[in-house]
């Protein structure tokens, strides 16, 4: 299918802000801001808020991976095959805490995006997620933080950075206050990036760095 009709899918795990980025993206698709549709949701936990929201909206939900607690989960190979059957073009992650299987990365090169609640490469890596990130940012004395959108590779939070949004860290911030401020920017930046992706405005420089071409001025990049 053409890129302007790209069909992303959402890969979620139950987290503190469960389902909020998913809802933001889905609502943008419904109102036409994003020229694409979410066609399937993958979750690692059946009772996750994102999965419940998807079912309410009539979206198919797939359980991955299979484990002792979720015996109905599917294998990496079956996941790839299922996504192919849905004609998925892009994979959108938010809150998934495990490494993405190599089979999926190989099947969707330069097509898997993740959002992280800090300005990577700071405060990234295994074990750095959710409220842990915001607490670490405050404890470090950093004056700025913010969400990062990056492409996914075989490691935690090391894929090429596509977009970032700066958020101030205030002197008396609690982790919860900072998290709420960052989350508002997450909703905005993820929708903006997916819009650019579906409009074929993500360009890869010769050195392998992805940049976004301005919609208003094709000669300007961010």
UniProtKB/TrEMBL annotation:
SUPFAM superfamilies: Formyltransferase
Gene3D superfamilies: Formyl transferase, N-terminal domain (3.40.50.170)
Subcellular location: Plastid, Chloroplast
GO MF term (any one): phosphoribosylglycinamide formyltransferase activity
Pathway assignment: Purine metabolism; IMP biosynthesis via de novo pathway; N(2)-formyl-N(1)-(5-phospho-D-ribosyl)glycinamide from N(1)-(5-phospho-D-ribosyl)glycinamide (10-formyl THF route): step 1/1
InterPro entries cross-referenced by the UniProt entry: Formyl_transf_N (IPR002376), Formyl_transf_N_sf (IPR036477), GART (IPR004607), GART_AS (IPR001555)
UniProt entry keywords in alphabetical sequence: Chloroplast, Plastid, Purine biosynthesis, Transferase, Transit peptide
Protein name (record): Phosphoribosylglycinamide formyltransferase, chloroplastic
Originating organism: Prunus yedoensis var. nudiflora
């Amino acid at each position: 299918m053409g890129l302007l009709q790209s069909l992303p899918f959402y890969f979620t795990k139950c987290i503190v802000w469960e389902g909020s980025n998913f809802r933001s993206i889905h609502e943008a698709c419904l109102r036409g801001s994003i020229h694409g549709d979410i066609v399937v949701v993958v979750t690692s936990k059946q009772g996750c808020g994102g999965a419940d929201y998807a079912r309410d909206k009539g979206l198919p939900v797939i359980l991955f991976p299979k484990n002792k607690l979720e015996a109905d989960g599917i294998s990496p190979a079956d996941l790839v095959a299922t996504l192919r059957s849905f004609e998925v073009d892009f994979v959108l992650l938010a809150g998934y805490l495990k490494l993405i299987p190599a089979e999926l990365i190989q099947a969707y090169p330069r097509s898997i995006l993740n959002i992280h609640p800090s300005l990577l490469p700071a405060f990234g890596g295994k074990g750095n997620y959710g409220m842990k990130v915001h607490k670490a940012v405050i404890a470090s004395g950093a004056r700025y933080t913010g969400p990062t959108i990056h492409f996914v590779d075989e490691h935690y939070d090391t894929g090429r950075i596509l977009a970032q949004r700066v958020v101030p860290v205030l002197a008396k911030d609690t982790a919860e206050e900072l998290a709420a401020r960052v989350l508002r920017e997450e909703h905005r930046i993820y929708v903006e990036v997916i819009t650019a992706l579906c409009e074929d405005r993500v360009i890869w420089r010769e050195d392998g760095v992805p940049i976004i071409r301005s919609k208003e001025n094709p000669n300007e990049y961010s």
